[in-house]
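Task: sequence design from structure.
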């Protein structure tokens, strides 16, 4: 039996990139002490998220844009060392566009990169949109990445599962409800949605699911934390709750997938020919 020790982070990150790296270094050190081999840090952990999701004067210039092959990502890789680390950042692309991105690194360099496809509210005022989902191999297994609102769309996780992802890693800056907000985030309806999406995406694709999120506050946003690891049956193995922390779980991934898919294989039993409405073009 080969088990994988994995962890998802809930933590507060801001605009100060040097401070963010100090937080990331502390969390990676903590994970290493826990013998973690795959660690997920939140969306926008390098440079912070947006101050607001409204198209108003609260929107600042946004986080610093970092090149995928630049010194900051190399610094992250050096911190990762033997560990596989996933982290969100603002990507400065060669074409001059800015993307809300997530990168996967080890000490050997970049293994994968994903640009957020689905943009909520006014996020498109700050970022361009990505255009694909793909899985890739890492020392921790074959993983697929997505960012925050991406997980609200079943097609995102399904595309990764069909590309062979054993583990789905989603990094978020998921806030509490914007209207009728509750004082206690435990009872927040957006937190409930966050948790439901995590469990549903793991279960419907029968994959391991690692969900990292921002915690605390930034600008007008109050994040719900709730970082977690979910097994292929949709059961939560570890959860930080609404505060900051590290959700750590250990699992034989291959065995867990085989067991979950043995009787009812959701990918195997698909009927793609029945899913297109009559008269509609095939996607």
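Answer:
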């Amino acid at each position: 039996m080969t088990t994988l020790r994995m962890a998802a982070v809930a933590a507060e990150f801001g605009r100060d990139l040097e401070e963010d790296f100090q937080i990331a270094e502390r969390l990676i050190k903590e994970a290493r002490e826990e013998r973690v081999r795959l660690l997920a840090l939140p969306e926008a952990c390098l440079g912070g998220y947006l101050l607001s999701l409204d198209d108003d004067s609260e929107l600042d210039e946004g986080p610093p844009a970092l090149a995928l092959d630049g010194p900051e990502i190399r610094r992250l890789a050096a911190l990762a060392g033997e560990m596989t680390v996933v982290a969100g950042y603002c990507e400065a692309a060669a074409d001059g566009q800015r993307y809300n991105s997530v990168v996967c690194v080890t000490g050997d360099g970049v293994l994968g990169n994903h640009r957020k496809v689905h943009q909520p509210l006014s996020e498109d005022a700050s970022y361009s949109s990505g255009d694909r989902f793909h899985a890739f191999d890492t020392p921790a297994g074959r993983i697929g990445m997505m960012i925050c609102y991406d997980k609200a769309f079943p097609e995102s996780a399904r595309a990764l599962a069909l590309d062979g992802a054993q583990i789905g890693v989603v990094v978020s800056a998921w806030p509490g409800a914007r209207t009728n907000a509750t004082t206690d985030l435990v009872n927040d309806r957006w937190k409930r949605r966050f948790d439901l999406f995590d469990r549903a995406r793991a279960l419907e694709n029968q994959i391991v699911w690692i969900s990292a999120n921002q915690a605390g506050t930034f600008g007008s946003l109050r994040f719900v934390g709730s970082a977690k690891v979910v097994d292929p049956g949709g059961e939560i193995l570890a959860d930080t709750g609404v505060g900051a922390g590290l959700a750590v779980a250990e699992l034989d991934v291959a065995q867990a997938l085989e067991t979950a898919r043995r009787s009812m294989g959701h990918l195997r039993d698909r009927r793609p020919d029945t899913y297109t409405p009559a008269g509609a073009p095939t996607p």
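The mean pLDDT is 95.
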